[in-house]
Amino acid sequence: MANVDLYNMSGAVVGSVELNDEIFGIKPNPDVVHQAVVQYLANQRQGTKSAKTRAEVRGGGAKPRPQKGTGRSRQGTIRAPQWKGGGVVFAPKPRDYSFKLNKKVKRLAMKSVLSSKVTDGKLLVLDALTLPEVKTKEMAKVLGNIKVGKALVVLPEDSQNVVMSARNIPGVKTCGVNTINVYDILKYDHLVVTKDAVEKMQEVYI
User: Fold this and answer.
1) How confident is the model over 99-139, as pLDDT tens digits?
2) Using an 8 Å Cβ cutoff, are 143 and 172 in contact?
3) 131 φ, ψ to 5°?
4) Could you give the CA distance from residue 195 to residue 201 in angstroms, rounded to a whole number?
5) pLDDT of residue 1
6) Which residues of 103-140 are buried (b: 16+ CB within 10 A; e: fewer)?
7) Mean pLDDT in the chain?
8) Strands (E), 120-194
9) 14: exposed, middle or buried (C-beta count within 10 Å: 0-12, 13-18, 19+)?
10) Are 188 and 151 in contact (CB under 8 A)?
């Protein structure tokens, strides 16, 4: 099993943590990670874009000019796509862009990105992360102590003070073990995880 340093909120190393190789030590699978990212982004799409086709645009019942004799092109309706105010060719319509991935595929993608963070030295484990009150300054100080900038902070459970303190810090996002996703892990440079969150992740993904 891989060992990583265990930090406290002051940035000092206070021990080490063993990481399960089944989750944090596998060979990353880029194809599966790509599928997971595409699925996440597709599921975020609202799919509400809509435009009218020539059949739906109001008006245009009469032929705008005679078929022959004018020397100009034939036109059947002023609501054809080439006319100003006409319908849209192949107009977009509301649709559902979401799709599903197999559980094993999603699990493998998660293990792949977690293993990549460990390999790149971008995974930092804290012994605890608690704040007595909502203070953005205190949260920024903790992140400064462990020398991380753009970071995803994973908590074992919803800690309201930490979440509220971090929400105004640019480039920082908090989430729980049950809401973590592949896209966010890749998006942020560092992954900051509490010791309890690591244990919970190892229970979930084994």
Assistant:
1) 999 999 999 999 999 999 999 999 999 998 989 999 999 99
2) yes
3) -125, 130
4) 10
5) 66
6) eebbbbbbbbbbbbbbeeebbbbbeebebeeeeeeebe
7) 93
8) 123-126, 151-155, 172-176, 190-194
9) exposed
10) yes
Annotate 78-109 with DSSP letters as a single string: TTSTTSTT-PPTT------------HHHHHHH
Q: pLDDT tens, 162-179?
A: 999 999 999 999 999 989
Q: Of 32, 47, 44, 46, which Cα lies nearest the Cα of 182?
A: 32
Half-sphere CA count of 197, side-chain side, radius 13 A: 27
Q: What is the pLDDT of residue 23?
A: 92
- Please count the other Cβ atoms lying within 10 Å of the Cβ belonging to residue 200: 19
Closest by CA to 192, choosing from 36, 8, 2, 1, is 8
Report CA torsion sign: 22, 204, 111, 13.
negative
Give me the torsion for CA of 22, 28, 29, 31, rounded to 10°: 140
pTM recorded for the entire structure: 0.84
What is the average pLDDT across 11-40?
93
For residue 191, which of 130, 139, 123 has the smallest C-alpha distance? 123
Residue that is written with structure tokens 């942020």 in the block:
188
